[in-house]
Design a protein that fits this description.
alpha/beta; Rossmann fold; Arc Repressor Mutant, subunit A; six-stranded parallel β-sheet; 28 helices; disordered N terminus; DNA-binding
Length: 734
Amino acid sequence: MGNQVSDSPFHLQGSKMDLLSGLNPEQRAAVELPARSALILAGAGSGKTRVLTTRIAYLISNGLVSPSGVLAVTFTNKASKEMQARLSAMLPINTRSMWIGTFHGLCNRLLRAHYREANLPQTFQILDSSDQQSAIKRVMKALNVDDEKYPPRELQNFIGRNKEQGLRAHEVEAYDPYTRRKIEVFAAYDEQCQREGVVDFSELLLRCYELLSRNQQLREHYQERFKHILVDEFQDTNPLQYRWLKLLAGQSNALFAVGDDDQSIYAFRGANVGNMQELLRDFHVENVIKLEQNYRSHGNILDAANALISRNRNRLGKELWTAEHKGEPLRVYEAPTDMDEARFIADEVRHLHREGVALSEMAVLYRSNAQSRALEHALVAAGVSYRVYGGQRFYERQEIKHALAYLRLLVNQDDDNSLLRVINFPTRGIGARSIEQLQESAKQYNTTLFDAAARMGGKVTGFVGLIEEMRSATANLPLPEIVDHVLAHSGLMANYQNETGAKKHEAQERIDNLNELLNAATLFVHENEDDSLVAFLTHATLEAGEHQAEAGSDALHLMTVHAAKGLEFHSVFISGLEEGLFPHQNSQNEDGGLDEERRLMYVALTRARRRLYLTFAQSRMLHGQVNYNMMSSFLRELPDELLQWLSPRLTQRTPSAFRAYSPPAAGSTKLPPAPPAPVKEGAWRIGQRVFHQKFGEGTITGLEGNGTEGRVQVNFKHAGSKWLALEYAKLTSA
DNA sequence: ATGACATCGTTTTTT
DNA sequence: ACGATGTCAT
């Protein structure tokens, strides 16, 4: 996303010339394309968001389309907000009349507008993934499905995957009894959702797709309206999203897709890069415009990225270039342990900071979240302030979900998920037994839990009374007052306020968060035309808030490579460049897995503007075990002449050289973490070629223990990778 | 109802 | 190693 904002201010609004000035020929060609479908292959840092927004502004300011004829689709709320903001800066019109949003947001909007045709209650609620999981667990219980044999997680994936392919339960092929059972759960789950008036994320898309495909009148209405459909990050679309786009585009509308096949890193969640080729076929796209000029990075960084990605098969083909200098070489550092790697990074960050690079202009990237621990430890020790991205989000906190559950019940009492969440929170003496009775009764009379509860009597009916009381008391109140009322009368606030002792601190935080919810509601009213409770609840699920609430202060960014996509920094550290970690072990088995990992590495490399560090460690603590990994093959795929090694090759050091890196063992009876096995006489080493009676030839890729006892991981030429106990495996040197 | 203990899983993630 | 989740006893 945004990289050219700073060097191309649009103070001159309006006329054609102003919009196009400052664009390079390819960007300009893309913006000025005729009203036919097109694919813009936009490399990292090539100004794709600018092209997308300028295209819209160009179409509108030249009278080629009215604002209401534009449909602009993104994946994240962040991207859609940015697009909206840029457009309002470029166009002297109210961007609110344009349909700009995420796939889910737009589908929600369509379903709300046509809830009857979509067979949904007007106030339908949206399940997030954790709500969905509890819903699935309930269905499984009702169907007596063994959750050992069928992990709810797997069912959730099964349902989601199929919906993303556009498939309903009855359309899924039942290969075997196991799958047949899963299909049963799928069907029952959908029925339950329908009964309860809720939809999950993929349902939002599928239901909207079905609405438009079945209802000719509606379909034609929207096809008539959206003459120009523009899609960001097109490589991330799943099959259903693509079909949805095709449906809206119809025969004559222009689908303007912007994407980068080399940055496709979400196959694991259903994204299908193949949609790019399909688009070319289905829409008879004649020419693809490639944006290859990069405005972000120095030459060496791009050379490295190009060299790496050139090893992937089935690319549409693209090579980044820059008008800038070659810049510095990429700095490579090999550390003895993950702790040393982290210390090195903390030190470098401090140096760079002292030289004037803002902390917020630096990022440490890693393949998996578990790696942040060691980094945080070292940063705290070095006194560097940092922010870790990817924690829990605001609307996902327990107390917030509780409050939202009460609010949802006001709007839709059939929402059993919400009822179960709060019927006994705060505790009101409704235990597991009562809840079971309630579920029995609901099943028997074929009603929802709320209706069953109304019939039950006792404390349970008291809960029903509470909800009804709150509903009528808030019926005509503005949103913030509804929230305030519910926080006070549900007993939630009091529950946390009454907390004492050890939990006091935690409770105070929850109270603060509940007050923050009240603020969010107030803010929501100011920012949105539709300030109803339903709209607010939808917002809470669809826009669960920033991953990291507090911003502002200058801090180093810590995040996964995935989270870094679309961002850029002056200096970037890519850490943990080890075989098995990055590329990740699990990618070896999936087909196309290694290519996706390589694209991930490509994304990581192209985040840096000026300085790039590539670091790895000989030994790493993972899941409570010390692992010895080889250097990442990706590092080997980068041209030598672009690299500057900051560390001598550790494999050539004498054991004593390690001691300088060992933490001081002052007063500790525990041994300092074992240095990477000082190579003993006759011990096995990583990288060594070996022979095994049964498996044949191979190379040692991992080591646990000291090399004479413990186990080794051997990658056999023909038998694959295996862990062998040295005590038993008769390995010989090959 | 609630805390102590056991078990499990552990790549990436938006909506 | 560690956190989340679940079970069991009180």
